[in-house]
Amino acid sequence: MDRYLQIADRFWLDSRAIRAESHGGGHINDTFLVKTEKGEKYYILQRINTAVFKNAEALMENIILVTDFLREKIVRDGGDPQRETMNVVLTKDGKTLYQDEEGCWRVYMFIDGTMTMQTCENAEQFYLSACAFGHFQKLLADFPADKLCESIPNFHNTKSRYLDFEAAVEKDVCGRAASVAEEIAFVRAHKEFAATLVDMQESGELPLRVTHNDTKLDNVLFDEKTGKPLAVVDLDTVMPGLSVNDFGDSIRFGATYAAEDEPDLSKVNFEIDLFDCYTKGFLGECGSLLTENEKKMLPVGAMMMTFECGMRFLTDHLNGDTYFKIHRENHNLDRCRTQFKLVKDMEAARELMDKVVEKYS
Ligand code: GN1
Ligand code: MG
Fold first, then answer.
1. pLDDT of residue 102
2. How far is it, in rounded angstroms, from Cα 47 to Cα 262?
3. Same domain, yes or no, for 7 and 151?
4. Is the CB of 214 under 6 A from ligand 1?
5. How far is 338 from 281, CA to CA, in rounded Å?
6. Same structural domain for residues 260 and 318?
7. Closest ligand 1 atom to the C-alpha of 309?
């Protein structure tokens, strides 16, 4: 860990870094919680995965722009700008990143007295996370989108994700395709579906907005004392996107009591009650902003993000697990299977989902 302390000391901390420990469960970047000699404040040190985020400097510019914008609104609304959004700590020579042979590093202030959840514990929590993401969407509604770079091009372009999947099947670099024939067939049966939202965006039926694009439950910090959501974090993929996908990615991850990588599929079920309370919270915060088409397509957003994520996990399994961190054999395949189980459940529950959306529209 000494190595990480030295890196942390390149940044403007309140005193010398004395401890660094692994933190959180992200699939992409490496994250450490750093304690300093003074011990009054903690920091988050992250190594940005530059295979995924090819332009770390532009990424940090996005984050500075977005967090500055959010801070102004938080202050305007009487909130606490130190706790309700992320605050970037600069290097001692005034940069957003420190670069060495191991990669690109950045530091955030750690927001203490908060907790995150990997799976939903109850409906109320999920409802509150919906309010947080809906509010985030509302706060960014007038953010000038043309100032943002696309941190990952085609991130939720499910059509081009489909092509990446076919290329992985074709190459089959690990010889795994034969063993996942069922999952491959599932993806192929959804080829047309994969194009729906991208087509609607291209034809102007769905507007591009500034969206978060990774609205997992664990990207909301809850206040330990009040249990209320405090801040939306992980702003790496804030860029122009579809509001229905932000809604959908939350449903994908949170509208089930099972973990994303649960190997026992009998435990993985889509919960319409959780869908109901998320829809209530999300539309309650930003419903007045959304067009009729956007509202109508919310259930499709949920199915799309779940399908897309399952397809991305399968693609990575076929490619030899080069994108998402894995912690056991067939980890990406387990993840893929939970997603496809949820897609099937959602397809069966489509009418119910439509009714829920209607109820809160
Ligand atoms: C990744 O790093 P993390 O865990 O916040 C991924 C998301 C996926 C998610 C699946 C940049 O997010 O797109 O939905 O894993 N982030 C990137 O859990 O690819
Ligand atoms: Mg994250």
1. 87
2. 27
3. no
4. yes
5. 25
6. yes
7. 14
In this structure, the answer to whether residues 136 and 106 fall within a common structural domain is no
What spacing in Å lies between the alpha carbon of 237 and ligand 1's midpoint?
Answer: 9
Looking from the CA of residue 213, the nearest atom of ligand 1 is: 13
Taken as a whole, the chain contains a residue count of: 361
Q: Measured in angstroms, how far is the CA atom of residue 24 from the centroid of ligand 2?
A: 9
Give the CATH number, domain containing residue 33.
3.30.200.20
* 217 Cα: distance to centroid of ligand 2 (angstroms): 9
**Alpha helices by DSSP H, the chain:** 2-8, 56-76, 123-139, 158-171, 181-189, 191-202, 243-254, 272-286, 292-296, 298-319, 331-348, 350-360
Looking at the fold, whether 333 and 274 belong to one and the same domain comes out as yes
Q: Which pairing describes strands 209-211 and 239-241: parallel, antiparallel, or unpaired?
A: antiparallel
Q: What is the pLDDT of residue 158?
A: 98
95 lies in the same domain as 137? no
Note whether 24 and 44 are same-domain residues: yes
Cα separation of 136 and 281, whole Å? 12
pTM comes to 0.97
Enumerate residues 6+ apart whose C-beta is below 8 A from 93. none
- Residue 88 confidence (pLDDT): 98
Atom of ligand 1 nearest to the CA of 323: 19
Is the CB of 60 within 6 Å of ligand 1? Answer: no
Residues of the chain with pLDDT under 50: none
Query: What was the pLDDT predicted at 136?
Result: 96
Question: Distance between CA atoms of 134 and 285, rounded to whole angstroms?
Answer: 5
Residue 133 placed within a domain: yes
C-beta of 234 in contact with ligand 1 (< 6 A): yes
Q: What is the pLDDT of residue 283?
A: 98
Tokens of residue 10, six digits: 């390149």
Number of domains comprising the chain = 2
Tokens 């009650």 locate to: 273
| Token code pair at residue 215 | 């609205």
Tracing tokens 């996370």 back to the chain, one arrives at 129
- Nearest CA residue ID for atom 1, ligand 1: 27
d(CA 261, CA 317): 13
pLDDT at res. 120? 86
